[in-house]
């Protein structure tokens, strides 16, 4: 059993994205800051692949006074069970299920599963007011509904097999980006925006487009 295999990045389809923060710019444009997580299904498969189906187990403990839930993931190493624990708060939607899901993700990180995602910087999602296939729906506190698509993972956050260019794509050119227009739009925005936090967020968003 090679526990170093826990460190291997997951395929993009095993990653789920959640909105961390969202809002509107001064000119009314919706923005959403998102974070990446490994799905519990992918975590269990990784444990099966590395440890064998009978070589690991998990257990949960409720924290008193609605304090959330703890998850322990145990792995059998040299005939002994070694357990690592972590905890998460219950979620607002499906509180118990959401709390257990979050606790297991954190316990998995204790073993190194998905820990590399902590090195990802927060990214801005693509936003659309129109419904598009494969895009996620969300709503701001003021009731504004929007659709979003997460950013692409960098090469280092994907398995080597995903970084091999397919023959049909080797000759394709990347879509052109109008850098001058992006910089002009940012300059116009910066000239009127007085909120430093919003200005930084806009800068980070536009920088990713260049």
Helical fraction equals 25-40%
Terminal CA distance: 44 Å
Strand arrangement across the biggest beta sheet: 1-2-6
The major β-sheet equals: 3 strands, antiparallel
Radius of gyration: 21 Å
Number of strands: 9
**Which structural class do you get from the secondary structure elements?**
alpha+beta
Question: Which runs of at least 5 residues are low in confidence (pLDDT < 50)?
Answer: none
Helix and strand element order: EEHEEEHEEEEHH
- Give the helix tally: 4
Pfam families: Rad52_Rad22
InterPro entries: Rad52_fam
Family: Belongs to the RAD52 family.
Protein name: Recombinase
Task: Write a brief structural summary.
With 210 residues, the protein is of the alpha+beta class.
Overview of the structural elements:
- This protein has helices at residues 40-51, 95-110, 179-192, 196-209, and strands at 15-24, 30-38, 56-63, 68-77, 80-88, 123-124, 126-128, 136-139, 145-149.
- The chain has 210 residues and is an alpha+beta fold.
- It folds into 2 domains: 3-158; 174-210.
- Helix 3 (179-192) packs antiparallel against helix 4.
């Amino acid at each position: 059993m090679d526990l170093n295999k826990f460190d291997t990045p997951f395929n993009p389809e095993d990653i789920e994205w959640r909105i961390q923060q969202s809002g509107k710019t001064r000119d009314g444009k919706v923005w959403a800051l998102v974070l990446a997580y490994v799905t519990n299904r992918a975590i269990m498969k990784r444990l099966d692949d590395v440890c064998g189906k009978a070589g690991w187990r998990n257990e949960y403990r409720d924290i008193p006074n609605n304090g959330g839930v703890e998850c322990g993931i145990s792995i059998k190493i040299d005939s002994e069970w070694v357990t690592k624990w972590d905890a998460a708060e219950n979620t607002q939607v499906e509180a118990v299920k959401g709390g257990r899901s979050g606790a297991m993700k954190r316990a998995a990180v204790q073993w190194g599963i998905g820990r590399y995602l902590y090195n990802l910087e927060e990214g801005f999602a693509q936003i659309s007011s129109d419904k598009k296939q494969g895009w996620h729906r969300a709503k701001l506190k003021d009731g504004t509904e929007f659709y979003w698509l997460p950013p692409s993972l960098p090469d280092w956050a994907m398995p080597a097999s995903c970084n091999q260019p397919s023959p049909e794509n080797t000759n394709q050119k990347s879509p052109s980006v109008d850098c001058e227009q992006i910089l002009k739009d940012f300059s116009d925005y910066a000239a009127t925006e007085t909120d430093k936090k919003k200005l930084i967020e806009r800068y980070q968003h536009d920088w990713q487009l260049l």
